[in-house]
Amino acid sequence: MSGTILVVGASMAGLRVAERIRGLGHSGPMTVIGDEPCMPYNRPPLSKEALRGEEYDERLPFPIRPALNDVQWRLSTAAVSADLDERRVVTSAGDELSYDGMVIATGLRPRRLDLPGPQAGRHVVRSMADAQALRDALRNAPSVAVVGASFIGCEVAAVAVTLGCQVTVVAPEREPMERVLGTELGAQVRRRHHEAGVTFRMQEVPVAFEGDGAVEAVLLSSGERVPAAVVVEAVGSMPNAEWLGGNGLDLSDGVLCDARMRVEGAECVVAAGDVARFPHRWSTGRAVRVEHWNTVGDIARVAGDSLRHLVTDDLGGHPADEGEAATTATVVPSFWSDQYDLRIYGLGDPAAGIGDVRLLSDADVAPVYGYHVDGQLSGVVGLGGLRSVLPHRESLLGSAFSNDLADHHWPGSK
Ligand SMILES: Cc1cc2nc3c(=O)[nH]c(=O)nc-3n(C[C@H](O)[C@H](O)[C@H](O)COP(=O)(O)OP(=O)(O)OC[C@H]3O[C@@H](n4cnc5c(N)ncnc54)[C@H](O)[C@@H]3O)c2cc1C
To answer: Pfam families from the xrefs (predicted)?
Structure first.
């Protein structure tokens, strides 16, 4: 395979697709552009180990395989616009980069709270720089308010209370992680945090930040003032897809792809990672984004295979038989979250089945819960890591809830 490959986004998804393309025999020019100043690194520790101490920082960068030695890395460089008909991308440095095949891997950025009050003292956690700034702030913070009680909010709360901060979590749901795990398991998570000293203000939202130049408190909808020298906003993320505007793509929630990760409405372009919206076996006919580490690797393989096919075909070569191409039908969404000694591990789509949760194992030994839709298993969650859920993987794969993704493409899916 030859042709010039441009990867936009120098992080996990971009790296994994680049590795796959080289692994499939591509030896042509490859450029990776990324707006961060550093080589690709691993994000999950940013809300866990790396927040506790700087000694973890050197373990964050991903190793770069020898097959990528001749790749041109253009760091601190953003893609600002693209002309997909002309196959050109304009960068923040003012360059125009041409490609035969392009990978979109620009991920997400944190959503921010649009509330009155001082900015200083407000943090998010997405990048290494974010985590380092928060780590420094936590060292001297008597009180921390975490707004949002899903994965990142709960993980940051666990680290902050362990570091000795007085931590309050504020969120509109009844229980932490309720949208992903349901109320029963969410209550268990809350109890574990409570034992560690975290205070919860659930079914509450912040309405303002207070302080003289820097945050000192969060004002809640109930009128209560929560003291907070540091505020962590963990209220979700937004896809970095604006730079693709004007090309007629569906960018309504990330970049719409088919089940081969080919971008709908573009030639020779694939997407991967958190920014990509695609159909998979558990998505019940819709295209969805999946913001989980394991899935990034799985779909990068599919995207790499597709790009090889597209570019080889486009350059007049002989692509492999379509029937052999990888699709997202084999992807089993999975996630984990570490909070204290809890390693929460999920498979499939537990969130779809939070209305019918049943204990599948002995509650005293690493409990595992099954999530059901119309009596069919949609997902499993265990509190004892991957090992606790693996025995239930076959039942999940055999469940009628997951679609048989025989058709690789749902037109207009959403
Ligand atoms: C703090 C944190 C903790 C997590 N913990 C877990 C966990 O415990 N378990 C789990 O399953 N998953 C976890 N995840 C999710 C997992 O890390 C992500 O799914 C994964 O990092 C996504 O990789 P990505 O390459 O798609 O996106 P990103 O890692 O966001 O990379 C996108 C890159 O593109 C860059 N970029 C954006 N716009 C442009 C542009 N216009 N031009 C050039 N470059 C651009 C960005 O700066 C970034 O470097 C966590 C994520 C975070 C942030």
So the answer is: Pyr_redox_2
